[in-house]
Amino acid sequence: MGRRKLCGIAAAGGMFLLTGCSGIFGDGTAEPIQSMKIGICTYDQFDTFIGTLVEEFKEEARQKEQETGVTITVEVVGAGGKQNIQNDQVESLINNGCDILLVNQVDRTDTTMVIDKAKNADIPVIFFNRELVREDLERWEKLYYVGVKTLESGVMQGEIVVDLCSGEQGIAPYDKNGDGRLQYVMLEGEAGHQDALIRTEYAVNTITNAGIRLTKLDNEIANWSRAQAQTKMNQWLEEFGDRIELVLANNDDMALGAIDAWKESGKPYMPVVVGVDGTEAALDAMREGTLAGTVVNDTEGQARGMMELAYSLYFQTPLPDDIELEEDTYIRLPHTVVTAEMLQDLE
């Protein structure tokens, strides 16, 4: 059995005895807790994907309330990309009586303050979306992570491009200058962010390993931002113009920023643009034919995993059978590829 195996203590009639109590019945038996409070700290409240994930979590909390009769209060704060602000927010949520913390860490390499504050208050932390280094997650037994299988997103993004070029004409429809290569630019999410690093590396490797020759024109950090990506793309359009044949973006917002810039430029030829996340705005762009494809980052599945794990930790009940806690620490969800052609077939 793992050191943090979640288990319930079976009582008569198949019920679970909760270790925390809000009071005592007249006969001396424990009165089960009827409420829990969850604090959510996001790295940036204006991030499209994170905002969607938080809304999905709130819906999961509402459903859990209906299923169990337990009142679940959710308090959400955003740090605006500043780790020192997030540290203060964690302390505030602890002081406000939160029973479980869900933290979308600003700086995944600077976790000491968050972990120490939670540990001192004996409040479990579920980190999400931004995976900590293993050594930090091993610092205390009440630290967990919910996210996706990061490597998949980069591989699948590359596969979208490979599939586009797998027809009889190969890369010819996209190789506008006819040099037998695809000239590309890369919009990276954030310096040092694990997802950005892995998506960048594996997207390119997947394409080249399939025998498609690439020439990198440039790569830039755009911090997951549509506006920043649009600015970067405007600069590239000035420098490279129609030489750009492929745009790889670490997330959908940056892919959409590149599309925004191209639309404003008035250029007749749109390069192949591929994103990651599967946001509604990205699906709309695929419907209009400007985004070639995306890799769906399962917000619903992650939100459910976070809610079920939080509930299980607080009430010491088992996780549902279909949710696996890997190494007693990790819940990981798979990605799904969606292309414009697939979307048309579905609709």
Q: How would you describe this structure to a colleague?
A:
- By secondary structure, the protein is α/β, with parallel strands linked by helices.
- The chain folds into two domains: 12-148 and 299-333, Rossmann fold (3-Layer(aba) Sandwich), CATH 3.40.50; 150-297, 3-Layer(aba) Sandwich (Rossmann fold), CATH 3.40.50.
- Helix content is 40%, strand content 21%.
- The protein is built from eleven helices and 14 strands.
- The strands form four sheets. It has a six-stranded parallel β-sheet, with helices on both faces. A four-stranded parallel β-sheet has the order 9-8-10-11, with helices on both faces. A two-stranded antiparallel ribbon has the order 1-2.
- This is Galactose ABC transporter substrate-binding protein.
